[in-house]
Design goal:
Blueprint: H1 18-23, H2 27-40, E1 60-67, H3 87-91, H4 111-114, E2 121-124, H5 133-138, E3 141-144, E4 154-161, E5 171-173, H6 175-181, E6 188-192
Parallel strand pairs: 1-5, 2-4
Antiparallel strand pairs: 1-6, 2-5, 3-4, 3-6
Length: 200
């Protein structure tokens, strides 16, 4: 059970990357709600996958989103793994390797912190009875911002199951994808699994 709040990270506008500044990605604004919800319910981040799926049927998920993954996501534990990607994928030069940094960030061992935040990846509460783990590993989904009619849907690679249902969000996106689509935390997005790819 989570017993204390980890150190919060506020990007210094003089040194933070343009991507973080574009997203206004300060951790107190973005992640405190998620951390408190999981702490209250005794569910640390690494047990997100234990919650029941909310994607019952069909090929579209619509709802609020958040950013996750990468070296500066301090609400992902240093050793947190990913439901859909294994270390062997990186060692075997799997197509999934492109979504990760070449080197493991210092002080971490988990793949969640090694995700490359500039790549387009996604976590959602996938219904594994409808979409198998292998199907999700080998297919991309499309993500769109319904309020931004000038942006086109972008493809994203499923890498994990989450976020916790208690956050009120349906998916976690890479910072790069959020920036590309003009999304901020708790904005609504639409995630589509093309019907031609959907499991029977």
């Amino acid at each position: 059970m989570v017993t204390k709040q980890p150190e919060l990270y506020n990007p210094d506008p003089n040194v933070a990357s343009p991507l973080l500044l574009l997203m206004k990605w300060t951790f107190p604004a973005t992640y405190v709600e998620r951390f408190k919800a999981e702490a209250i319910h005794g569910a640390p981040a690494q047990t997100r996958f234990l919650f029941s799926s909310t994607v019952e049927s069909g090929s579209e998920i619509r709802g609020k989103v958040e950013a996750f993954g990468g070296p500066v996501d301090l609400f992902v534990t240093p050793n947190e793994g990913l439901t859909l990607v294994d270390l062997q994928d990186l060692e075997a030069n799997s197509p999934l390797k492109q979504y990760f940094l070449d080197d493991q960030p210092a002080g971490t061992t988990g793949l969640a912190r090694r995700l490359n935040p500039d790549k387009y990846y996604i976590a959602a509460r996938w219904n594994f009875n409808q979409y198998s783990r292998e199907f999700l590993r080998t297919h991309k989904v499309k993500v769109s911002n319904p309020k931004n009619t000038n942006s086109k849907p972008e493809e994203a690679q499923p890498v994990d199951w989450g976020p916790s249902v208690h956050t009120g969000r349906v998916a976690s996106l890479s910072p790069g994808l959020m920036a590309k689509l003009g999304l901020d935390t708790d904005d609504e997005a639409v995630i589509t699994i093309p019907k031609s790819q959907a499991s029977p």
